[in-house]
C-alpha cells in the first residue's frame, strides 16, 4: 500500500479499486455466460467429436412444405462427401469417419403394454442421432438409426412407469400400430422452465423415423444435423450451403459450433425483433428452441460484459496517460515492461520446445 501511495494519488488509487471491482464483476458475468452455454449438449457435438476443434456442427431445419424423406437426406450426405473429396479432405485416421449426420421428425404415437397404453410425443430418428443428442440414460442403451431391424424404442421414465409401473423395463415388449417393439433404454428428461417452454415437458418416446412415419401420417422430416471437417472458419458451412438445393424460403441453416461466442451474440443484437419472426413455416424441435432461448438469456450478459470491459479499458488508458503526463510513470518504464514480457515469452517457448510440447 505504501508503494501505491508513492506512485499513485489517492484519487487514482480509488479508481484502481473501482476498476478492480468492475473487473471482478466482468469476469463473473463472462464465466456465467460460459457456464450457461455448456448446459446444451445438443450444441456441443463438434467438441465431443474432435478435441482438435477442426470440425463444425451444422443443423438444417426444413419447413413442412419441403416434404423431405430419408432418400433426400442420403442424397445430401452423398453430395457433402463429394465436396469433401473434391477438396481432398480426409479423415484423421483410417478408422475415423470423416462425416456423420442424423435426421429427425416429431409426431405422436400410442404405445401399448399388457397393463396399459400411453399416447406420447414421438421423435423419429435416423443416422447418428444420439451422437448429437446424448440423452440421460437411466438404464439400457441407445439404438442405431441405421439398423435394418426397426423394432426398438426408447421411453422416458414417465412413460415407462405408466406402461409398466417401473423404469427397469429394458427388453420388455410393447405394441405400436399392431407391431411389436422392444424397449432398449429408459431416459431421464431435462427439467426446468426453459425446457418446458421449449416443448420438452410432455411424455416422449424415441423410435426409428420409418416407425413414426407409419404411425403418424402428418409427420414430415424437419431436422438434419451433420458434423464435418472445417479446417478454417466457415469451410464446413460453405460446403453445406453449396449442396442444399432447397428453396431458401423453406429451410434455415444454423452453425451450432460457436453459436454462443461473443462475436455471434453481438451480431444477434442487430437482429432483435426480426429474429423472432418466422415466415418460413418451420417448427423448430425442442433442442433448437432451448438453444434460441439460451441465446436470448446470454445476449444481455454479453452486452453487460462489453459495457464493463469498456469501463475498465477506458479507465486504465486514462490512468496511464495521466501518470505519464504527471511523470509518475516514464517511457522507459513502459519500454522495460514490454521487453521483460517479450523475454519471458521467448524463454517459455524455448522451454516448451526443449520439452517437446511444441512441434
Number of domains: 2
N-to-C series of helices and strands: HHHEHEEHEEHEEHEHEHEHHH
How much of the sequence lies in strands comes to 15-25%
Coarse structural class = alpha+beta
What does this structure look like?
With 359 residues, the protein is of the alpha+beta class. The protein folds into two domains: 2-36 and 303-353; 41-299, no CATH class. Helices cover 45% and strands 20% of the residues. It has twelve helices and ten strands. It has helices at residues 2-7, 10-37, 45-49, 70-86, 129-132, 157-164, 193-197, 209-215, 235-243, 262-269, 286-325, 331-354; strands at residues 55-62, 100-112, 117-127, 136-140, 152-156, 173-176, 179-188, 204-208, 223-229, 251-255. Strands 1, 2, 3, 4, 5, 6, 7, 8, 9 and 10 form a ten-stranded mixed sheet that branches. Strand 6 and strand 7 form a beta hairpin. Helix 2 (10-37) runs antiparallel to helix 11 and helix 10 packs across helix 11. It is elongated, with a radius of gyration of 27 Å. The relative contact order is 0.17.
Topology:
Layout: H1 2-7, H2 10-37, H3 45-49, E1 55-62, H4 70-86, E2 100-112, E3 117-127, H5 129-132, E4 136-140, E5 152-156, H6 157-164, E6 173-176, E7 179-188, H7 193-197, E8 204-208, H8 209-215, E9 223-229, H9 235-243, E10 251-255, H10 262-269, H11 286-325, H12 331-354
Parallel strand pairs: 3-8, 5-7
Antiparallel strand pairs: 1-9, 1-10, 2-3, 2-9, 4-7, 5-8, 6-7
Helix pairs in contact: 2-11, 10-11
